[in-house]
Design brief:
Blueprint lengths: L7 H79 L3 H8 L8 H17 L3 H13 L5 H15 L5 H8 L10 H14 L3 H12 L6 H13 L8 H19 L1
Length: about 260
């Protein structure tokens, strides 16, 4: 039913509508204040966080570019040093290698130290060579194959001055079949056992080396002969052995010519 201007129902509804509009305006004002306060409260921290993030990303890009440039320089220095080594300019090569440090690339640094050790060996500066190899061994950031190679070479230089047990302790982990240094490390460990008068330990190790086809033929021949001297048979195939001996004799004759 329609209402008239003086209808009491219309008069009762008016305050309700006015109150709803007022509450809506208050609610919007409160929301606006909340946004404003949040912006004031969190705007600076968020902005600072964004700036720090951008600065960190820019810093990373700068560091990466600088590191890449440093790696390129060290690679060039290694190549230059090798060229000088091939030309017989040992002192110049050593001076070039001495400029390489381990801050950028532990692998490049280890390579430089091992090359300096080789130069020292050629010049019969054995103590210097050992020092260079020990630096590689002690560097936990250097690639493990380089550390293992340096350990084998260091022990080979100091073999005659080391106690047999010290040789065994240092090389035993590398004197295992299947490893890349099994032949060289195993032979030195076997000799250390013999120095301790323990042929029962040396013999089986010598046999393993002699029968390992990944070991150089000259090393296999030495360990086979030494194993036989102590009563350990390292010959698996007599025909193969005779072919190997004949091949070695042929190569020796060709070299002699």
């Amino acid at each position: 039913m329609a209402t008239t201007p003086n209808d009491p129902r219309k008069t009762a509804e008016a305050p309700d509508l006015a109150q709803q509009m007022l509450m809506r305006e208050v609610d919007e004002a409160v929301r606006s204040d909340e946004v404003t306060n949040a912006a004031r409260k969190y705007g600076w921290p968020v902005g600072i966080g964004l700036l720090l993030g951008l600065a960190a990303f820019g810093g990373y890009l700068w560091w990466d570019a600088r590191t890449e440039a440093a790696l390129e320089r060290q690679s060039e220095m290694l190549v230059l040093a090798m060229d000088k080594l091939e030309a017989g300019q040992l002192d110049d090569a050593d001076a070039e290698l001495a400029l390489i440090d381990g801050d950028v690339s532990p692998a490049a640094y280890a390579s430089a130290l091992m090359m300096r050790a080789a130069i020292a060996m050629q010049e019969e500066r054995f103590d210097d060579a050992v020092t260079f190899y020990e630096q590689v061994i002690a560097n936990e950031k250097a690639p493990q194959p380089m550390r293992d190679a340096s350990l084998v070479r260091k022990v080979s230089i100091r073999f005659d001055q080391m106690q047999p047990q010290a040789i065994i302790d240092e090389l035993q982990a590398l004197a295992r079949p299947g490893g890349p240094w099994f032949g060289s490390a195993g032979e030195m460990v076997a000799h250390a056992y013999l120095a301790q008068n323990k042929p029962e330990l040396a013999g089986p190790l010598l046999v393993q080396i002699a029968q390992d086809e990944t070991v150089p033929d000259s090393l296999r021949a030495r360990t086979r002969q030494l194993a036989g001297f102590y009563g350990f048979d390292a010959i698996e195939d007599v025909g193969e052995l005779m072919d190997s001996v004949a091949s070695q004799d042929k190569n020796a004759a060709a070299t002699g010519q």
